[in-house]
Amino acid sequence: MLSVDPVFLERVRWRCRRGMLEMDILLGRFVERYYPQLDEEQRQIFDELLDLPDTDLWDLVRGDKEPEQTRLREVLEWLKQV
Fold this sequence. Notes:
Shape: globular
CATH topology: DNA polymerase, domain 1
Helix content: 55-70%
CATH architecture: Orthogonal Bundle
Number of helices: 5
Structural class: mainly alpha
Largest sheet: none
CATH class: Mainly Alpha
Oligomer: single chain
Strand content: under 5%
Mean pLDDT: 91
Distance between the termini: 20 Å
Radius of gyration: 12 Å
């Protein structure tokens, strides 16, 4: 487990602010519960997921869509558990 600089963690939280209240809640809970435990590769995957438009990310989390890249699945499964 990597340690997380509190300033960096606050930037991650800020980046999780979205246009959908449901996404704000989901991503905020994920950051609190899982982010400090992620390794560097998993953090990069989470960052890639945050680059997606809200609707695309929401569809992936809800399971309405499957990710094109299989390497995203593990982090998506954790998001679904939140």
